[in-house]
Amino acid sequence: MEDPKPEEIISHPPMDQLQGFEYCIDSNPSWGEAIALGFQHYILSLGTAVIIPTFLVSLMGGSFDDRVRVIQTLLFVGGINTLLQTLFGTRLPTVIGGSHAFIVPIISIIHDSSLMQIPDQHLRFLATMRAIQGAVIVSSSVQIILGFSQLWGIVSRFFSPLGMVPVISLVGFGLFDRGFPLAGRCVEIGIPMLILFVVFSQYLKNFRTKDLPILERFALLLSVMVIWAYAHMITAGGAYKHRPDLTQIHCRTDRANLISSAPWMKIPYPLQWGAPTFDAGHSFGMMAAALVSLIESTGAYIAASRLASATPPPAHVLSRGIGWQGFGILLDGLFGTGTGSTVSVENIGLLGSTRVGSRRVIQISAGFMIFFSILGKFGALFASIPIPIFAAIYCVLFGIVASVGLSLLQFTNMNSMRNMFITGVSLFLGLSIPEYFREYTALAHHGPAHTNAGWFNDLINTVFSSSPTVALIVSIFLDNTLDYKDSARDRGMHWWVKFRTFRGDGRNEEFYTLPFNLNRFFPPS
């Protein structure tokens, strides 16, 4: 048998842009299809918009009415931030939603002794919300300054494909606790949802109606409709009447109390909870969360660029996006969403699942977020979808995003022991350290950092509870200190360097130029 030729061995050459997409970042499906896809992204965004307020508002002393208002506000501001990001930020097709990174400092504020002593539950909720607003407003300065000053762009020059592999991968893998652990809380709807979504999106993806791969394109919408109807039938049939309360909360379709508590129409507005209050200790902890959100979003933006069939965002564009994200966190503080903002990882995964990376689709989804947050009853209807249904979808979509990070290894030399060391150690510590912090907190009811300085505790516990943040600290340090001078090509820098600057590659202008000819006033570097 003859030896294979070199071109036969390297049968899959590295590609700057991911291939096989029906629509990339600046190409658009028909208006009808775009609207349906936008609605699908809106439905997906409801998961996080419901999970975060459901967890936090009750701890703050809020009622069902308060929870509905927070959900509406989070969706309303998320829609505005998504439009700002797709128009003036990175211009990537990314949905901006609530961030879990802010939960640690928010819980610290909730347990503040001065707030816990308020006897009236509603007054305690309002006082806590105003304290959170003040801390979120101050924390927004981190991203606004690092973004608009281009400081984050300078920092990003230390990034390489090798260094970003663990970061982007753990943007997806690091969310494993929001996948099957949540879906498993109601296996009778979680597992069927997972199976049906995989069957529709993968095994039946070639089924076409009028030349449209309808099952692949709308797998999420169709599977949610089927399983939601199935869950409602189980609920109506009395299957959960004598089950524990926790099972009923996760499985029943009529226990969320969102529809009955939602107003028919209400427009969220700034300072609707009252004037924010400011405390230095609260603000320092929240600033750490803003830094974590920045790092997680950096990995998410690079993943989105791959799944939109675009080139990696140049340093100038990445920094610009972080600046606008910081402005979005400022809006979160002014409106009172109860948390900060970050890029929605699940919506990035949906770009890959549908093979549609169109910017217009995401802008339409932002319109749905704003519209249904104002029409409260209609928005609450969709928001009452049981959480295990969303969690089953996350199992697939988070995995897609993680695989995007692994795909960057094609630009590196993985026959290098140095590269294997950096990749393996960064991935392992990125999973292991946050897991230690989570387990410690679950057992001790406080994080490993537990000193008299609350702001210091929040800073340490927030930063090291984030998998992408730990991975970035480890991988970027090792990649830039361990034999870095002689390993530029092994690290993938020969491919990466041309995307560092806006003019380094001709395609950047097509993907990242500002609309309305604004580049005349804000020339890219």
How do you describe this structure in short?
The chain crosses the membrane at residues 39-58, 131-152, 158-176, 183-203, 218-240, 361-383, 389-411. By secondary structure, the chain is mainly α.
Structure explained in plain terms:
Belongs to the nucleobase:cation symporter-2 (NCS2) (TC 2.A.40) family. InterPro entries: NCS2. This protein is mainly α and 525 residues long. Helix content is 64%, strand content 1%. The chain has helices spanning 6-9, 31-59, 64-88, 103-110, 113-116, 121-148, 151-155, 161-173, 180-183, 187-203, 214-217, 219-236, 245-251, 258-261, 280-307, 315-335, 345-354, 359-374, 376-383, 387-407, 417-444, 454-463, 467-481, 493-496, 507-512, and strands spanning 96-98, 341-343. The protein has a two-stranded antiparallel ribbon. Helix 8 crosses helix 15, helix 10 crosses helix 20 (387-407) and helix 15 (280-307) runs parallel beside helix 22 (454-463). The mean pLDDT is 90.
Q: How many distinct beta strands?
A: 2
* Beta-strand residue percentage: under 5%
User: Biggest sheet: strands, sense, closure?
Assistant: 2 strands, antiparallel
Strand order of the largest sheet: 1-2
| Cα Rg | 23 Å
By helix and strand content, what is the structural category? mainly alpha
The oligomeric state of the chains shown is single chain
Number of helices: 25
Shape: globular
Order of H and E elements: HHHEHHHHHHHHHHHHHEHHHHHHHHH
Low-confidence stretches: none
Distance between the termini: 54 Å
Mean pLDDT: 90
State the helical fraction. Answer: 55-70%
Subcellular location: Membrane
Membrane topology: Multi-pass membrane protein
Protein name: Nucleobase-ascorbate transporter 2
Family: Belongs to the nucleobase:cation symporter-2 (NCS2) (TC 2.A.40) family.
